[in-house]
Amino acid sequence: MPTSSETIRHALAQRIVSGDLEPGTALDETRLAAEFNVSRTPVREALRKLGVTGLVQQSSHRRTIVAKPSDKELANIFFVMAQLETLCAGQSALNMTTRQRHFLQAMHEEMAILVRSGSGKDYTLANEAFHSAIYEGTGNSYLAELTANTRLRLQPFRRAQFETPGRLAASHAEHSAVVEAILRADRDTAEQAMRAHIGYVEGAWKRFSNRVQERLAI
Asked: Which among 77, 60, 92, 75 has a CA at the least distance from the CA of 152?
């Protein structure tokens, strides 16, 4: 049975990666303790654990905010993410089982329906499962875990990309190139397609962020 600190950590992590708690939001221990009906001790422990994952930032004065990396820090994380996802795509092309390849293809086909319906929220959830299937397909649990943890750091920013017009269809088209290469067991092409995909993801995030800043400046 999970401890209260683990329950709180999980709940807050979900709010952060879903975008309910935006980057820069302050997390007040007293308010959280009241919300979860616990003392401040498990809240403090939950925030400490979130700090280790990089989802929140804590100051020496115990002030905690949802992580808001600088442009340079974010670019660095995207760079690492691209390397890891590229490696995962290549290894999946080589190591995925027949069952896993069929599952990935079926998932991709189902996501096409979400694109046509314009269901951004459902596509976002399916997109996370799609990438997780590729991590699992590597057959390397350490690589899968490392990639998933890095993705968690970027989740609020990756989700925001789908606010960019036309991004759902573009994302699905990029996935098509990855899936086709994996199904052919073509490591080089799978890696190239995934590297390009993550580059487009970062570009979409930047465009979305720039539009937000322009609106705030008005």
From this structure: 77
Tokens of 92: 């999946």
Neighbours of 129 (CB within 10 A): 10
Amino acid letter for position 153:
R
The pLDDT tens digits of the residues spanning 130-164 come to 999 999 999 999 999 999 989 888 877 777 777 77
What is the pTM assigned to this prediction? Answer: 0.76
The torsion angles phi and psi of 39, rounded to 5 degrees, stand at -75, 175
Nearest-angstrom CA–CA distance, 47 and 10:
10
- Residues 95 and 74: their CA atoms lie apart, in Å, by 31
Residues 89-124 have pLDDT tens digits of 999 999 999 999 999 999 999 999 999 998 888 898
| Predicted confidence (pLDDT) per residue in 42-101, tens digit | 999 999 888 887 888 887 677 899 887 777 888 898 899 999 999 999 999 999 999 999
Q: How far apart are CA 152 and CA 199, in angstroms?
A: 17
Q: Find the angle CA(57)-CA(58)-CA(59) to the nearest 5 degrees.
A: 130
